[in-house]
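ARCHIVE CARD
CATEGORY: sequence design from structure
SOURCE FIELD: tokenized fold
FIELD CONTENT:
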């Protein structure tokens, strides 16, 4: 399995939290920047958070900064997105994506997961 796989999406109320999990094969995960995009139907996909292969550097879009936290467990080939204080505007399909570096991730990842829906009700 080369494609990452997301889990943990669901329906929550505004102000609540969710944690997304992305698991990938060692081939896809090792030495790669990993991160999360999201897309609302009819809108462009937005890169919201990324971490380098070591986890030493992270990126957050302004729209999620201070509310979302990305982390990774390299022993388990897994990356997480902890989402706190969710807002209805966070409703979207969330995609896990992998790239050779953070710059490459921003330009366009190599691997994409199928997505996990997050719905936040007001």
């Amino acid at each position: 399995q080369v494609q990452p796989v997301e889990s943990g999406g669901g329906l929550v109320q505004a102000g609540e939290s969710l944690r997304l999990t992305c698991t990938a094969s060692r081939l896809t995960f090792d030495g790669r920047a990993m991160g999360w995009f999201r897309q609302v139907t009819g809108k462009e996909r937005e890169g919201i958070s990324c971490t380098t292969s070591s986890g030493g550097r992270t990126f957050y879009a302004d729209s999620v900064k201070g509310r979302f936290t990305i982390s990774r467990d390299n022993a388990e080939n897994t990356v997480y997105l902890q989402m706190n204080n969710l807002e209805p505007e966070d409703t979207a399909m969330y995609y896990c994506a992998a790239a050779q570096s953070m710059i490459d991730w921003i330009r366009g990842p190599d691997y994409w997961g199928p997505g996990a829906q997050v719905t936040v009700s007001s």
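CARD ANNOTATION: The radius of gyration is 13 Å. Helices lie at 26-29, 102-107.
SHELF: design records, drawer C
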